[in-house]
UniProtKB/TrEMBL annotation:
GO molecular function: GTP binding; GTPase activity
GO cellular component terms, A-Z: mitochondrion
Name of the protein described by the UniProt record: Tr-type G domain-containing protein
Cross-referenced InterPro entries: P-loop_NTPase, T_Tr_GTP-bd_dom
GO terms of biological process kind: mitochondrial translation; ribosome disassembly
Segments forming domain Tr-type G: 1-108
Organism: Rhodosorus marinus
Statement: the UniProt record of this protein carries the keyword Transcription: no
Keyword Protease: no
Entry superkingdom: Eukaryota
Keywords: GTP-binding, Nucleotide-binding, Protein biosynthesis
Length: 108
């Protein structure tokens, strides 16, 4: 196996089974990418999910995308930090790409 992708649920964050799988990957020195899934669910909290990664997996995650929510806390897309690009979805499933300024990153 060349690597692993660990999926973290956006509402609950790291769960007990996640810790077990993480320990196995660490034991075998597998490179690992963590993906926070289900950010469109009610109660999803990206900051909480990232904090559970820090606390329960004892790692310092490098966040490369930040979720975008509207005023009703509905998931609308992500800010890609590497590309400095906001990728947003509208109600009619249209995809919008918007460059993001450095000032906006400082707000994040």
């Amino acid at each position: 196996m060349d690597g692993a992708v660990t999926i973290i649920e956006g509402v609950a964050g790291v769960q007990a089974q996640t810790e077990t799988v993480w320990r196995q990957a660490t034991t075998y020195l597998l490179p690992n990418v963590i993906y926070v899934n289900k950010m469109d669910r009610e109660g999803a909290n990206f900051e909480h999910a990232v904090q559970t990664i820090r606390d329960r997996l004892q790692v310092k995650p490098i966040v490369v995308q930040i979720p975008i929510f509207d005023s009703n806390h509905r998931f609308r897309g992500v800010i890609d930090i590497i590309k400095k690009l906001a990728i947003q979805y509208s109600d009619d499933d249209e995809l919008g790409l918007t460059p993001v300024s450095t000032i906006r990153f400082q707000e994040c």
